[in-house]
Amino acid sequence: MTADTEQPLAPVSPLVRYAGRFAAVTRASGGAVRLAELPLLAQLSVRLDAKGPAAEAVRFALGLALPVEPDTVAFSDELAALWLGPDEWLVVGRPGSAAGLEERLRAAVAGEHAAVTDVSGQRTTVLVGGARARDLLAHGCPLDLHPRAFGPGRCAQTTLARAGVLLAGRDEHRPGYWLLTRSSFAGYVADWLLDAATEYVADATSIT
Amino acid sequence: MLLIPCPWCGPRDEAEFTYGGQAHVPYPRDPAALTDEEWARYLFFRDNPKGPHAERWCHTISCRRWFNVVRDTATNEVLAAYRIGEAGPVIS
């Protein structure tokens, strides 16, 4: 046994090998399409009765009310809470904060009928920004992504090129989308995004 | 392609949903008391109308809720969508 096998395994994000190609598209499109992985974000699945005491407890613990309107996101400085269903949310935080968040949330809902699960490894996040971000996603997404229908603070679980994704509009100051995709689909979704982006790149050979 | 109005998420592409057959088929009050024929009728016999048909759909890819849809089987027009437990619309 060598020494390095005894080291604890460092987490590796699913799209770590795509960083160079994402950066190349961003450069070659002159920023019209910005692609970047936001690796290893803390993600917690929270399931509880939105009308019950557990929802109040979570609001106090996070300083953030879980959104009850379907397909909306609530933001605080550190966190985002995405509506996934009438009794299900995804709380997203900075990398490395999952264990602490899980502990805080579990303590808050202790004794209530609720579930808090660290699902950070389930999905990875791709930032899709730039002036043509909406056109890029529209190539494979059946949703109406016009800001009138899907602006900042909206989220939706839908399909992108037939892969299930969770899409969220960023806030007003930074237009674009967060695209959360299952780790096992991440390579496929990344390849699809890179292929769809060739249209917005002056010299497509520069990104392959 | 149908555009199905999920009672939670709003209108979404049919590909996001799973079909669940005819709605409002009550589970027998006392299944053990049924004859084989009555049990078979409960399990396998469904309406097959040409026109409005109440059926169950699940928004599998998104909120994962089951709900009911009234769809015209002749035109594929979706006439109503309502949550489980809510009363269905009166459609003449």
Automatic annotation (TrEMBL), chain A:
It comes from the Bacteria. Pfam families: SoxG. This is Sarcosine oxidase subunit gamma. It comes from Streptantibioticus parmotrematis.
